[in-house]
Design brief:
Length: 72
């Protein structure tokens, strides 16, 4: 799932509506920061740097599939 928070967007895991789990931050210029803001998040705080690309791709796929569901 993706969410824009202030001046950056976050793609990754959410729990109870909060950024929590593996994710990747993207800034308005399209970069991910130096060093890359990718890893384990707890709210707005990154608590550990880890490779999160696989989880981010999975989260984006799930969000895209969910957006295609038609509610009757």
């Amino acid at each position: 799932m993706a969410e824009t928070v202030g001046m950056f967007s976050y793609e990754g895991e959410f729990r109870e509506g909060q950024m929590k789990g593996l994710g990747l931050v993207t800034f308005p210029d399209g970069t991910h920061g130096t060093p890359t803001c990718e890893g384990m998040f707890d709210g707005l705080r990154m608590v550990a740097r880890r490779n999160a690309r696989e989880m981010v791709m999975k989260a984006v796929q799930i969000a895209n599939a969910a957006s295609q569901i038609k509610v009757i």
